[in-house]
Design brief:
Layout: H1 2-12, H2 32-35, E1 43-47, E2 51-55, E3 57-58, H3 61-72, H4 79-94, E4 101-104, H5 109-115, H6 119-131, E5 139-141, H7 154-160, E6 165-167, H8 170-173, E7 177-185, H9 189-199, E8 205-213
Parallel strand pairs: 2-8, 3-8, 4-7, 7-8
Antiparallel strand pairs: 1-2, 5-6
């Protein structure tokens, strides 16, 4: 039955390459041309506060286009393919770490309602399935703020995220090892603030992974 449903779905909604939007065979994470552009190594950085972060791609070229298409063009269906690449990077970088839970950088309810979905949550839930680690919403965004890319300076970016996030339940994350997912690591202030909120008062160990990272942080 599942095979029949997949065939029907592929007939009406064929799989597309997340990087160029061309039709691809069902189950392929990218077209052959885009796959050849995948980097041989992945990026390792730190969110502010010294929290490790790994990313399969730099935020440029077809990878930048893939993130923007996924984020702004209502292409939630690209999440699974993008998450497969992210999951492979997580296995390579954190293969010796046993995560208790996977979570994501949350959006403010008004922001999420306007966009229709949180792209970071979609990625995190698919990574959760692929790594067989449970997903939970551990953070909430309690205040609306300016989008980070609209902040002119790094100081503005730092101040823009202060006091914006809150842990939903500290008891649930006491002494846990947590992987937090976002789409892009830019200056690292957003992820760093989320990590700090999760780690303070709980003793939790926090690691990060994003689909893309800026060339220099």
């Amino acid at each position: 039955m599942n095979k029949i449903l997949r065939l029907l779905r592929s007939s009406f909604f064929p799989d597309r390459c997340p990087y160029c939007n061309k039709t691809v065979e069902s189950g392929k994470i990218a077209c052959d041309i885009c796959k050849m552009k995948f980097p041989e190594t992945y990026s390792t950085n730190f969110a502010k506060g010294g929290y490790p972060c790994c990313s399969p791609f730099f935020y440029k070229g077809i990878f930048k286009k893939a993130v923007k298409r996924f984020k702004f063009n209502d292409l939630e269906q690209n999440s699974e393919s993008l998450a497969k690449v992210l999951s492979d990077t997580i296995k390579k970088e954190y293969g010796n770490i046993e995560f208790d839970v996977i979570t994501c950088v949350p959006m403010h309810p008004k922001e999420e309602k306007k966009r229709g979905y949180n792209q970071s949550k979609l990625l995190a839930k698919d990574v959760s399935k692929q790594l067989s680690v449970p997903y939970e919403d551990l953070l909430e965004k309690t205040k609306e703020n300016l989008e980070q890319h609209k902040c002119a300076t790094t100081v503005q970016r730092r101040e823009n995220v202060k006091g914006v996030y809150k842990a939903i339940d500290n008891e649930r994350i006491n002494e846990k090892t947590i992987l937090i997912i976002d789409d892009i690591l830019t200056t690292g202030y957003t992820l760093g603030e989320c990590c700090k909120v999760l780690a303070e008062k709980t003793g939790a160990k926090i690691y990060c992974a994003t689909l893309c990272a800026r060339n220099s942080l």
